[in-house]
Amino acid sequence: MSSSFDKSKYSHIKKIILLSGKRKCGKDYLGEKLAEKLHAVLLHLSEPLKLEYARLNQINGEQLLTSSSYKENYRKDMIKWGEDKRHEDSSIFCRLAIEQKDEICLTNPIWIVCDIRRYTDIEFFQKYFSNQLLLVRIEASTDTRNKRGWIFTSDIDDSESECQLIFCRLAIEQKDEICLTNPIWIVCDIRRYTDIEFFQKYFSNQLLLVRIEASIDTRKKRGWIFTSDIDDSESECQLDENVDWSFIFSNNDTDNFNEQINNLIKIINS
């Protein structure tokens, strides 16, 4: 499938509303009500994902599109498959969601996208429709979501698909009083490209990217033991390549720690 997108077909667009929120917060309900009142096109990025996943695995795609318990049997594996596809092509499901309803999209000036979950989803629409974009966050308490049938599920509700849009922002908000007065922030645990992208988006001129490296022997002496599905996971490995680091700090026992930290401080203060 081509990764190109022909924006010129959609010059009639007046507004694209992107809805974001956690499971059982009411994204679909709000999207349906807005679409009804605005006579808008309702798009789901998960729809092409689910239909293609169903086709490849020979299961019922229409059932995956419902809120039934059927899709819960496949959710974890479906999320993993979707992440793999996005790593190959970050905007694939944004384009497919539009293409699958292209006949309606070509004539309707208002689109509502019900399930924005990642920075790359937002970036796709910002790239092509920045002047028409409206970003809406839907929030509901844990109690409310529980009443609607939500049950916390590990590897789903704490996964990138549910949480990517909030952790950088929450880290700042939790120390907001200090952040409002201190001119230097140090973020100790950047693990993904999207973490970097968040700070590049808002603080590109102030950003310094520091990579800390230590040999396997050094890490073992500090108690590290390789654990499958953790040390070979995305959270540990994604930034191992394709990052233009401002400073690489070599932190083995034989390295000159004081010399390196002094050099780093000079760069910070420059």
TrEMBL record:
<dbReference type="InterPro" id="IPR005919">
    <property type="entry name" value="Pmev_kin_anim"/>
</dbReference>
<keyword id="KW-0753">Steroid metabolism</keyword>
<keyword id="KW-1207">Sterol metabolism</keyword>
<comment type="pathway">
    <text>Isoprenoid biosynthesis; isopentenyl diphosphate biosynthesis via mevalonate pathway; isopentenyl diphosphate from (R)-mevalonate: step 2/3.</text>
</comment>
<keyword id="KW-0152">Cholesterol biosynthesis</keyword>
<dbReference type="GO" id="GO:0006695">
    <property type="term" value="P:cholesterol biosynthetic process"/>
</dbReference>
<protein>
    <recommendedName>
        <fullName>Phosphomevalonate kinase</fullName>
        <ecNumber>2.7.4.2</ecNumber>
    </recommendedName>
</protein>
<keyword id="KW-0963">Cytoplasm</keyword>
<keyword id="KW-0808">Transferase</keyword>
<dbReference type="Pfam" id="PF04275">
    <property type="entry name" value="P-mevalo_kinase"/>
</dbReference>
<keyword id="KW-0756">Sterol biosynthesis</keyword>
<dbReference type="GO" id="GO:0005829">
    <property type="term" value="C:cytosol"/>
</dbReference>
<dbReference type="InterPro" id="IPR027417">
    <property type="entry name" value="P-loop_NTPase"/>
</dbReference>
<keyword id="KW-0153">Cholesterol metabolism</keyword>
<dbReference type="GO" id="GO:0004631">
    <property type="term" value="F:phosphomevalonate kinase activity"/>
</dbReference>
<keyword id="KW-0547">Nucleotide-binding</keyword>
<keyword id="KW-0443">Lipid metabolism</keyword>
<keyword id="KW-0444">Lipid biosynthesis</keyword>
<dbReference type="GO" id="GO:0019287">
    <property type="term" value="P:isopentenyl diphosphate biosynthetic process, mevalonate pathway"/>
</dbReference>
<keyword id="KW-0418">Kinase</keyword>
<dbReference type="GO" id="GO:0005524">
    <property type="term" value="F:ATP binding"/>
</dbReference>
<keyword id="KW-0067">ATP-binding</keyword>
<keyword id="KW-0752">Steroid biosynthesis</keyword>
